[in-house]
Amino acid sequence: MRQVPGGRPDASGKCYRTGILLGALVAAMVGCDGQKAEAPAAPQAEAPVALSAENVTRAEVRKLESGPVISGSLQARRAATLRAEVGGALLEMKVEQGQAVKRGELLARIDDATLQDQLIAARSAARVAENALQVSKAEEERNGKLAQAGVITQRDFDRVKLAREQAEAQLSEAQARLALSQEQLARTRISAPFDGAVSERQANAGDVIAPGTPLVTVVDPTSLRLEAAVPAEHAGKLQAGTPVDFRVSGYGDQGFTGKIERVNPVVDPTTGQVRIYVAIPNVEQSLLAGLFAQGRVASESREALSVPVGAVDLRTASPTVLRVKDGKVERAQVELGLRDDVAQRVEVRSGLQAGDVVVMGSARELAEGTRVEVAQAPAQPAQPTQGLTPPTPR
C-alpha cells in the first residue's frame, strides 16, 4: 500500500476499480445525449389487408341462362323508302328527319300541272265515248226492229251491231285512260304508309326528280328486329318463341329481351351458320335502329347458387375460390355447373353456401390464411390493377 503525505494509506487502487464498474453501468443506461435508452419494442401482429367492394362478392342464388351467343345490328321491322313514281319538280317537302308521322299524312308533293291537263282530257274523252255508246245502242235497237219487219237485211243490222260493240270498246279504253290519269295525279302526293317516324329525307323542295328517285324513308320505331347468325351445331336449340337476352352498345349493363320470330331453313354453306330473326318490342322507343347488339339465345335457364366468373380460379386442377371466413382468406374447392356468358356468372353446385363472401380480381393472388378486412369502396376507385389496398403501418 502506497503512503500518502501525512502517513495515511492510499486506497485509490480499490476505489479506481470500483469506479470503472460503476461508469460502465451508467454508460449502458445513459445515452450519448443524456437521455435514457428505451427497452426493445415487442413484435406487433401483421395488419390486415383492406379489401374494397370491387374485390369482394357474395355467393347468391340467381337466374342463370345458357345458350349460343349471337351478335348483330338492330333494324326496324317495318321500313319504307318512298320514291317518286312520276317525274317533275318537287313543290313541297313537309317533313324533317326524326319527325313523327301518321298513316296517310302528306309528306311531299310533286308538280302536277301537266297531269291535271291530262286528267281533264281523259275525262272529256270518256264522256264522248259514253255518249257515242248511247247513240250506238239506240241505233241498234231501231235497226233490230226494222230487221224483224224485213225492212233491212240482216247484213245491215250486223253492221249496226258491230258499231255498238266498237263504241263499247272505245268507252272502256277512255275509262282506262281516265283511271290512269287519276292514278298518275295521285302519285304526285307522297303519303306515309304507316305510323312511324322519318329516318331519312333524300330530297328538298325545288329539286327536279325522275321516277324512282328516293324522297323520304319512314320506319316504325315501336318494333325492332335483330338479325344474327348462329353456328349450325346449335340449330336444334333454335325454335320460334325462344327468348333471346342481349345488351346494346351505348346502354351499359342494361339488359333487353326479345323472342325468335323466324329461323332460316337453310344453312349458309360459306359460314356454316343459321340466320335467325329476333322480334324486339320497343313500345317505349328506348332502343334505336342501327345499334350493335350482343346476346345469347336462352335455350337453358334455371335458378342456382352462383358467383361471378372472375371469382373462380381455373388454374388449378379443380376450380377453387378464395373465401373470407373469420377475418382470413381460405381456399375452397368448388364444383361448377351452368355458365351464363351474358351475366358473367357461373353456377356453384358445391363448395359454397349462399351468403359466403369470396374475393375476386387481383385479390385472388392473396396467400391462403392472410388476414383481411372488407372495407367500403372508395368514391373514385383505382385502376383494376390496384384493387388491393396496402396495409397501413401501425
Automatic annotation (TrEMBL):
InterPro entries: Beta-barrel_RND_2 (IPR058792), MdtA-like_BSH (IPR058625), MdtA-like_C (IPR058627), RND_pump_MFP (IPR006143). Residues 372-394 are annotated as: Disordered. PROSITE patterns: PROKAR_LIPOPROTEIN. Residues 157-184 form a coiled coil. Residues 78-219 form the Multidrug resistance protein MdtA-like barrel-sandwich hybrid domain. Residues 226-300 form the CusB-like beta-barrel domain. Residues 304-361 form the Multidrug resistance protein MdtA-like C-terminal permuted SH3 domain. It is found in: Cell envelope. Keywords: Coiled coil, Transport. Belongs to the membrane fusion protein (MFP) (TC 8.A.1) family. PANTHER family: HLYD FAMILY OF SECRETION PROTEINS, MULTIDRUG RESISTANCE PROTEIN MDTA. This is Efflux RND transporter periplasmic adaptor subunit.
